[in-house]
Design brief:
Strand content: under 5%
Shape: elongated
Helix content: over 70%
Number of domains: 1
Number of helices: 7
Structural class: mainly alpha
Oligomer: single chain
Largest sheet: none
Distance between the termini: 15 Å
């Protein structure tokens, strides 16, 4: 997998965490820097760790799906992207605001926003992609976007709302389509 695809996947995966960070950042009035660092660390770490779990799980099944791995990769990325788009259109932004200063809430949100990364890890295993570089890129991109989301959330919450998750979903669907077409046409 090339660097551009890896970066686009990282951006797509980070959109859930970014959206939660922006909406939650709108409610944080004190210790914004500390809150932004804490949330970014949680979101980035979970977003980086989940693909590793998926990758190891996917390795167990990659021999069984090697003939149609491109279809599985496309299907997983399209489902994840479609889910993100659907949720962005059916969930009110007010429902995403959470108290990121509460460790339990932050942990729950970090896990919830990184479930998609687990499936992407499975996709990496099916495509025989080494996991180290994508995991670092996914973690760093999520860290940076989550930090920025918390830090600037009170300024941009009205503008972003559901648009970010739609963009993230479209990116993941596009990457899945690229994988499918490359395999079918080559």
């Amino acid at each position: 997998m090339d660097g551009i695809s890896t970066l686009l996947i990282a951006l797509g995966l980070a959109m859930d965490a970014f959206a939660v960070s922006v909406t939650s950042g709108a409610t944080i009035t004190h210790d914004r820097l500390k809150s932004a660092l804490k949330a970014a660390l949680f979101f980035g770490a979970f977003q980086a760790f989940m693909p590793v779990i998926g990758w190891f799980g996917g390795l167990e099944f990659s021999d069984f799906v090697s003939g149609y791995d491109h279809w599985v990769a496309f299907g997983l990325l399209a489902l994840i992207g479609g889910k993100m788009i659907h949720e962005s259109m059916t969930t009110e932004p007010d429902e995403r605001v959470a108290n990121l200063l509460d460790l339990r809430v932050l942990t729950f949100l970090a896990v919830a926003t990184s479930i998609d990364a687990l499936a992407v890890g499975v996709t990496f295993a099916f495509l025989d992609v080494p996991i180290f570089i994508p995991v670092v890129v996914i973690g760093v991109v999520t860290f940076v976007l989550s930090f920025l989301g918390i830090y600037i959330g009170n300024r941009f919450v009205g503008f972003f709302e559901n648009r970010i998750e739609i963009v993230g979903g479209l990116i993941l669907i596009g990457i899945g389509l690229k994988i499918l077409l490359e395999d079918l046409l080559l």
